[in-house]
Write the structure tokens for this entry.
Amino acid sequence: MIVTTKELFKAAYGKYAIGAYNINNLEQTMGLFRGCIDSQAPFIIQISKGARSYTHKLMLEGLIRSADQVFPDAIFAVHLDHGDEETCYDCINSGFYSSVMIDASADPFEKNIEITKRVVEAAHKKGIVVEAELGQLGGVEEHVQVDEANAKLTDPAQAKEFVERTGCDSLACAIGTSHGAFKFSGSQGLHFDVLERIQKLLPGFPLVMHGSSSVPQDEVARINAAGGNLAGAKGVDPTQFKHAAELGVTKINIDTDGRLVWTRVHREYFLAHPENFDLRPVGKIFMSEYAKFIAEKNAYLGSNNQLEVVRKLVGK
Ligand code: G3H
Ligand code: 13P
Ligand code: ZN
């Protein structure tokens, strides 16, 4: 059942975070739904601009609508990840998305406000929820690349002003994470002090943590042992998710870790079966491993076993 992101945030705020997982294809979709049903967790399925153009944006919509039928107990929202203004309008008008992210974080403060405000006005007219971003994460995104030294943590006072002036429904804050598999070169970590100050100024307001993959070291070691080259990859400690949730983080974005599962499964499979050229045996292993990974992640987020509570709250 597709619900609004707002309903999920209301259920989770201060208690746990909802996992927001990116999908690009059938196998990820199946693994995600299966993992969330196995762990009894509500979730957010997110689609980036790159995912929309990987094949055709309608393919993902079709996959998700079918998954909703195959897994009738699932409760989830559908979200545009890192949208530009044009893509936000396309999703708002599609009648399919529960929420959109307008990412104008690379623009100056006033310009970010101006763009975000326009998207909020258009989205709210159709009952769609808007995530915006203030501050800059390090790493690579679709249209922006920021090195670690130039990443800018979110300024709490600016965050309050930004939310009040734009009317956005949730805010992605930069608190030390970055996108991709190489998040920390030294002993850096999450800036909970910044999060605490934002929560004090915006009590009850849903915050979002991007770049939250954990980049498990055993996964990296297995990929490298099977011919990969991901030396130095490092991520966020998932035992910190619950503390982040207490500080108002209701949505935690995870994409890279899923890609690592995909890479490990495929590298190991084809190394062990050099004679094989059938895509289905390895696809089946991936779906099962991805479901296991999702269920484990949901336990770290605290969203596991929340499905029935959420079902009652959304009244469906
Ligand atoms: O933050 C970006 C997400 O991981 C999506 O990545 O733009 O390569 O689909 P993508
Ligand atoms: P990771 O690269 O850490 O998985 O972050 C994903 C993300 O923030 C998607 O918006
Ligand atoms: Zn992101």
Summary: The longest helix spans residues 279-301.
